[in-house]
Amino acid sequence: MLTIITDPLFYALAIPAVISLGLSKGGFAGMGQIATPMLALIMPPLEAAAILLPIMLVQDANAVWVYRKDWSGRIVAIFVSGSLIGIGVAWWLASYISDAAVRIFIGGFTIAFVAYSIVGMMRVPREPGQPGIRDGVFWGALSGFTSTICQAGSPPYQMYALRLRLSKMTFVGTTAMTFALINVIKVVPYFALGNFTTKSLGTSLVLLPLAMVTNWLGFWLVKVTPQERFYRIMLVVMLVLSLELTREGVMELWAH
After folding, report:
1. pLDDT for residue 83 is more than 90
2. Membrane-spanning regions, if any (predicted)?
3. What is the reported pLDDT for 231?
4. What pLDDT does residue 160 have?
């Protein structure tokens, strides 16, 4: 029988986390980066990721349908192939790393992503690039790893895909198709590691209606709203959360 989390503090954090995830799956790639760090403030990171994954799978199905005509098969094939490596490595390491280490990893990785976004260390070239196999496999592997550990596969993907100068809708559609496949693959290690429980699945079900509403809101917003305004706000929130998450992880390791 399914049960649910009843802690009000959890929902105070889960609601904005799911909203950001819905907007991200609607087309604002990267906004969902905030979801796992937010929940990881009050629960084990992999447990938080397990609550979010079923929600993401349903949102992925919507996104794939909406953007079914706007995606690059070559990019998806290259990137997802690389992600298999990262997912496998994350599966192997998940049983050996502590919650504190995962918190530090999520915090540090998110801080790096914020810095990358602000400073623009890898500027988008003026001329469109070609989806190279070697680069795609490398960034795909990194994305598969971070996506499995903390649902943060978007930054490596963006570092690869933004350089290709895809059209707006092709970029959004390719992103949707790529992570739909990656998330389906992740179900296997999550089940094998025992991350799915009756409580996590029940909680996912409770949050699903909100996720669907914000998902469709994202589909609409991506067509009418400049993304930069949203990104600036999200970057500030992500930075604050990641600093706190890193601090918690360091203090937890220090205590041991």
Report:
1. yes
2. 9-28, 34-55, 75-94, 100-119, 169-192, 204-222
3. 59
4. 85
- Cβ count near 179 (within 10 Å): 30
In the DSSP assignment, the letter for residue 30 is T
For tokens 């469109």, the residue is 128
Max Cα–Cα distance, the chain, nearest Å = 55
Q: At residue 31, does pLDDT exceed 60?
A: yes
Residues 6+ apart with CB under 8 A from 81: 136, 137, 140
Query: d(Cα 231, Cα 36) in Å, to the nearest integer?
Result: 17
Q: Tell me what the pLDDT averaged over the chain comes to.
A: 84
Q: Are 188 and 86 in contact (CB under 8 A)?
A: no
Q: Is the dihedral of CA 24, 29, 34, 35 positive or negative?
A: positive
Tokens of 39: 């929940």
CB-based contact 191:3 (threshold 8 Å): no
Alpha carbon distance 179, 249 (integer Å): 28
- In a 3-state reduction of DSSP, which class is residue 29? coil
φ and ψ at 151, to 5 degrees?
Answer: 55, 40
d(CA 252, CA 255): 5
Q: Give the Cα separation of 85 and 131 in Å (integer).
A: 18
127 conformational bin, left if phi > 0, alpha if psi -120 to 50, beta if neither: beta
The torsion defined by the Cα of 109, 110, 111 and 115, in degrees rounded to 10, comes to 100
Beta-carbon contacts of residue 237 (< 8 Å; ≥ 6 apart): 34
Residues 149-194 have pLDDT tens digits of 878 787 788 778 877 878 778 888 998 999 999 999 999 999 998 9
